[in-house]
């Protein structure tokens, strides 16, 4: 079997337990060298967005959001947005390599379960992305977790272009989402976790959170793969 990122052959070394159990051999999607390129976030982290830093104080982005909004979104992320993450996102999201969806499923699912949500709402992709990519890269990574698509996109061209925008332009984007039918009833008094792939400025998640908060959730947090 080949590594999905560098294409090198991964040799499967069976342990004695695996041989004796005759159990299924779980194949790794990427090799150990590629896996070692990802930086798992370590404490201390920003108590707001989960970015790794030198203290638990709010980072500059979170301070800005706190002034702009009357609340702070509690976000936790798994890995740093480094070169390996960029390459991974390029191959998974923009080249649409669906096989990569399994690489972070297990730790992401663990992170979500720790938050004990009633509903998991993925950040939606617009119709254009559906047509070209054919899948939602966020839901794709979540394995057996049941997702509730209670947010939908409104503007066809805005969200896809978000990744090509400069920081200032991103912060100014208008609300790209709307609530799905019955979202208000479903979200009311529930523990909600929003999931996205990358937390960059926080703009996308705060747009989503603003809508969810209109539905009176009991709790609202978010999780992203990268920060
Ligand atoms: Zn590799
Ligand atoms: Zn922060």
List strands and helices in order, with pairings.
Elements: H1 16-21, H2 32-35, H3 60-68, E1 74-79, H4 83-94, H5 105-114, E2 119-122, H6 127-133, H7 137-140, E3 151-153, H8 158-161, H9 167-171, E4 177-179, H10 183-187, E5 191-198, H11 203-213, E6 219-226
Parallel strand pairs: 1-6, 2-5, 5-6
Antiparallel strand pairs: 3-4
The structure holds zinc ion (2 copies).
In short:
With 227 residues, this protein is α/β, with parallel strands linked by helices. It has eleven helices and six strands. One zinc ion is lined by residues 3, 5-6, 8, 30-31, 33-34.
How would you portray this structure in words?
Belongs to the ComF/GntX family. This is Competence protein ComF / amidophosphoribosyltransferase. GO terms for molecular function: glycosyltransferase activity. With 227 residues, this protein is α/β, with parallel strands linked by helices. It has a single domain, classed as Rossmann fold (3-Layer(aba) Sandwich), CATH 3.40.50. The protein has helices spanning 16-21, 32-35, 60-68, 83-94, 105-114, 127-133, 137-140, 158-161, 167-171, 183-187, 203-213; strands spanning 74-79, 119-122, 151-153, 177-179, 191-198, 219-226. The strands form two sheets. The chain has a four-stranded parallel β-sheet with strand order 1-6-5-2, with helices on both faces. The two termini are 30 Å apart. The relative contact order is 0.16. The mean pLDDT is 91. It binds zinc ion (ZN) (2 copies).
